[in-house]
Amino acid sequence: MEVRVVNVRKEFERFPALHDVSLDIKSGELIALLGPSGSGKTTLLRLIAGLERPTKGAIFFGDEDASQKSIQERNVGFVFQHYALFRHMTVADNIGFGLKVRHGAARPRAQEIRRRALELLDLVQLSGLEKRYPAQLSGGQRQRVALARAMAIEPKVLLLDEPFGALDAQVRRELRRWLREIHDRTGHTTVFVTHDQEEALELADRVVVMSQGRIEQVGTADDIYDTPNSPFVYSFIGESSSLPVKVENGEVWIADRPIGLEAPHAPPGEAVLYFRPHDVDLLDGCSGCIAGTVAASRRVAGTRRVELEIGGERQRVEIELPIDHPAAQKSRVAFRPRRWKLFPAA
Amino acid sequence: MADPEIKSYEPHHESQSAAVTESRPVRVALTTVTLVFLGVFLLLPLIIVFKEAFAKGVGAYFQSLGDADTRSAIRLTLLVAAISVPLNLVFGLSAAWAIAKFEFKGKAFLTTLIDLPFSVSPVISGLVYVLLFGAQGLLGEWLKAHGIQILFAVPGIVLATVFVTFPFVARELIPLMQEQGNGDEEAALSLGANGWQAFWYVTLPNIKWGLLYGVLLCNARAMGEFGAVSVVSGHIRGLTNTMPLHVEILYNEYNAVGAFAVASLLAGLALVTLVLKTLLEMRYGAEIAATRGH
Fold it and tell me: What is the predicted pLDDT for the residue at B197?
């Protein structure tokens, strides 16, 4: 099911949580809402679910306007961050709940409900645990039960709120792969919220980066990582370095020297240069480059990160060096960013 | 908790660290004070109630319980409890639901208001109804004109009892429901349940032991209430005397056996309540709210 969010605004007690957000989610897509806390990602998810109503704007499921429909009518599968399993019901009863509360002819017979619950339990690889209570399960198992319960109602859309937030690192990685498999097998349109960029970039077909109630960028992991379109995305996703620069005559300058980067379309004046610390060319001589003295150096896994002091204004910038690079404290290093972007000075 | 090594050195206080354990004489003194206090002020009176009740033998005991006025007092007490406890179950549940699950203006005020019956003297609670429904009261004229009798009749007694016992259920449920949050209900709704199904299948099972606990305390108080009921009942024998009021009347008439026989029933009720309360706390302590204000 295709989901379209059109110009949605949401206020809580006059305090805006989302400003004019629009988003198209394709049918069968696995999409991540990524952002720091307070960015509005969970609010957006709850609006799609119908747990909240938008202050302005509309949400379409296919061609149908779902904005004014209740959560029951929308038929979405929602997985809560803390699972929200019914503690007094067995695993099988939890999974079957959505079918049991249906009315009249839509409600399957008890036997059928049980069969479906066991089938789903098998899908989430928890066969044999149907008689357990939630308290008798590990965090990862509870999350799987929560997902099975959400899928039991054959939802149009699956919505997951920080699905792996409460689990430890090992289980998270495992469940991530497993969720991808389940998605590929069942083909549900799936939206999940996370603040973990690794999770978002690895798992999702497309990532929606959010900040302060706005969508900053939507794209594949490659789009987001390689061509961030705002200083926020640059600094939020992966590592980034930035330097205040000047644009003159279609060239980028630091203090009184051009650094060998051409920017023919950038407006002249103050700007900020962004690049990835690992995405640089090291140079020997320096005619048109960024040069600095090593102020600090630290080992990060297979590489070395050095902090360079640039020019007289004591700007510091971080770049990555190969482990065998001879740069020592106070020595001079010259480099030029390979891939970079200019943003207007704030 | 002490680790196993320390345990082996000091096998006698496994659950306490040495720093907070008092010296032996202090412990003995504290324990003795507590036991003597409990004995003199709680246990002894309880024993005396039963001793006096049976002072003239088992026959006299049952005879005094069989007295028509006594039986009427027992019936009235049961009737009042049977009306006011379910009412407070519903009131308490709705108040707790509103306070725990919704945000609205004046919530803090409402929470304070719920505690009012605990903070005000029961006599005042009764007097309020006299001022409201009495012959010279605010609604007195109108009630008289329409032939409705509230004071000195069952409705007045029920009203006073409901007022006095209102906080029990609500106060038990508010912290419990606040702690549980809305997550389970939202999950139920997202799975297609309507509001009633969410309440019946999810909310109620989550709070049932806390609810039962509140109802138990509410019932004990409803049957034992004296002050507020005394003001509104009018003490009409065989008509508007509840058990506690009847005890007082019998006692004032020097009918010790009769007074203590009825008192023994109330004491028995207290004991049963205490046992049930302890059982509930033992088995479902975690599911009953942590706050125990009573």
Answer: 93
